[in-house]
Amino acid sequence: MDMTIFWLVLMLVLILAEIATMGLTTIWFAAAALICGICAGFGMPFIPQMIIFIVVSLVLILFTRPIAMKYFNKDRVKTNAESLIGKQAIVTAQIDNLRAAGQVTVSGQEWTARSSEDGTIIPQGAVTEILAINGVKLIVREVISRQAEKAEEKPAQPEPETGPPAE
Fold first, then answer.
1. What own/partner pairs with CB < 8 Å and gap ≥ 24 does 150-155 have?
2. pTM value?
């Protein structure tokens, strides 16, 4: 019965850690500890208990945690920097990855920025879309204006034909 108490105390500690952090990490180990506590109650030796603890923990983390994270995080509101992804920003200093230069303003804040495509230079004043955040730099791409898109889509009008010059 000694190991049964060990596993149940471990389970309780892991549950308390989960309540304190709400990270959906230690709960899976707590479930594995419960199973090992049951195994210990039936007199299983310690080594098989440890193997069961490791296997059950890994299975629960790998297969059920992603589903649980998706379910519990569906109403989560993005905060801080991650809320910038998808927003538009104005280039305040030309973006040139080769020269490691570039700056944008978004929501009244200035950020260092890099183009999502190497070799692409984005001029000052251009409107960009924030694709990602890499450290303290925003990864952006230039947004083509609707007028420019329409001009590209519209085929060139042929010149009106003029007849031979009148004599």
1. none
2. 0.46
In 10 A of CB 138, how many CB atoms? 27
Secondary structure percentages of the chain, helix, strand, coil, to 5: 45, 25, 30
Q: What is the DSSP letter of 144?
A: P
Neighbours of 56 (CB within 10 A): 18
Per-residue DSSP letter, 43: T
Backbone angles phi, psi at 104, to 5 degrees: -130, 160
Residuewise pLDDT in 10s, the chain (167 residues): 589 999 999 999 999 998 888 777 888 899 999 999 999 999 999 999 999 999 999 999 888 878 877 777 665 555 566 678 888 899 999 998 888 899 999 888 888 999 988 888 899 999 999 898 888 888 999 887 544 445 555 555 555 556 555 55
Amino acid at 66: P
User: What value, to the nearest 5°, has the Cα angle with vertex 96 and ends 139 and 149?
Assistant: 70
Q: Specify the DSSP element, H or E, that contains 52.
A: helix 46-59
